[in-house]
Write a structure and sequence with these properties.
By secondary structure, the protein is mainly alpha-helical. It is built from 11 helices and 2 strands. It has a two-stranded antiparallel ribbon. A hairpin with a 2-residue loop joins strand 1 and strand 2. Helix 3 packs across helix 4, helix 7 crosses helix 8 and helix 7 packs parallel to helix 9.
């Protein structure tokens, strides 16, 4: 069975910042965490969708949501970047726990078990320690499998979303364009790919090579603020991107 989840830390209950919030803002915070997890897939960037999309999903007016976001920004829960709202530190908080940290915590738990085990007769201690070691290995394998399964499912969902947009806005899917979309998703965030497709449509340049050129420019030069005039992409750069798609990097 597929699982869709985000990490929600116990420390929230004792966080003074969260404790000062109204019930409305407390609820809105958790809702934005969930939307960020659903929106970003494996990227975990914390970038939120448009105000209109979020307002519809949360059954709010856009004015109500704007007010809540401004209030939450004062608490450091969200901030604006490139004219988009972003959940602060979302990537850091949702990233998989480093293996050494996971093992450190697990060893600490096992040490407590050993302390209790030392009170048992000798005949039971070796069996208990062996079971603890096996349990440690199983827990590690289980977490790795769950993280891999989650990443694969999120990548699959991101592909489906971009593929649908590509077919609606650019052209019908072919095996070649399917491979190109997979590469976009592996290399860039879902939001970047969506924005690049929108710009290609606005400029009436409905070609995968044009989208690729936009993404490569953003990666090299940085993504522009949407409130500023978008860069006009060099036809020569677009042609180079097309040739890379056709023949590879050789």
């Amino acid at each position: 069975m597929n699982k869709y989840w985000i990490k929600l830390y116990h420390e929230i209950l004792d966080d003074p910042k969260m404790g000062k919030m109204t019930d409305r803002l407390w609820r809105r915070t958790i809702e934005l965490f969930l939307i960020a997890g659903d929106e970003n897939g494996s990227d975990k960037t914390g970038i939120l969708p448009s105000i209109s999309d979020m307002a519809w999903r949360l059954r709010l007016t856009e004015e109500e949501l704007e007010t809540d976001l401004a209030d939450l920004a004062s608490y450091g829960i969200v901030h604006k970047s490139d004219d988009r709202w972003v959940v602060s530190n979302f990537n850091k908080r949702q990233a998989p726990m480093p293996k050494d940290e996971y093992m450190r915590r697990l060893r600490k738990e096992r040490q407590r078990d050993v302390f209790v085990t030392n009170e048992l007769p000798d005949s039971y201690q070796s069996v208990t320690r062996s079971n603890a070691e096996e349990e440690e290995e199983r827990e590690e394998e289980k977490e790795q499998e769950e993280e891999k399964e989650q990443e694969e499912e999120q990548e699959k969902n991101g592909y489906s979303r971009i593929a649908t947009m590509f077919e609606n806005e650019i052209a019908a899917l072919t095996p070649k364009t399917a491979d190109i979309i997979s590469e976009w998703i592996r290399s860039y965030s879902i939001v970047w790919v969506e924005d690049a497709i929108k710009i290609a449509v606005e400029n009436n340049a409905r070609k995968p090579s044009y989208v690729t050129a936009i993404l490569e420019n953003w990666k090299r030069d940085g993504k522009q603020d949407k409130s500023k005039k978008q860069k006009s992409y060099d036809p020569l750069e677009v042609e180079r991107a097309r040739l890379r798609e056709k023949y590879g990097n050789e």
